[in-house]
Amino acid sequence: MSAELVTALVVSHAIHSAGETTNVLSKLTRLSSAIDGKKLPKYPMNLDTRPKALALGFGMTAFFWAISYFILRAMNLNDEPLYVIALVSLIAAEAYGTIRLDTFHVRIERIIKKFSK
Prior knowledge:
By secondary structure, the protein is mostly helical. The chain is built from three helices and no strands.
């Protein structure tokens, strides 16, 4: 397996993970708004079924993998810099996810407290 394939997959995973984390926080904002009685705007995309949502997730992962792969192939790097790119992508995704999901935990606890009174 080539280092470009592995690195592109890791980069794609990092991008997808960041997007999913952002989506979780967006849904939490909608939940908070609904609880507070605010009118909710329509979703930008109509993902009203699990197959549509899963297809979008897999499709975006494949899209970002392909883009990353072709960019990395064009850069014509040796294996070591590719592994560094993969490692930095994993660390960045993990850091972003940890920080943003901590925000989720703080915000969901506020919602839980509203209902535990």
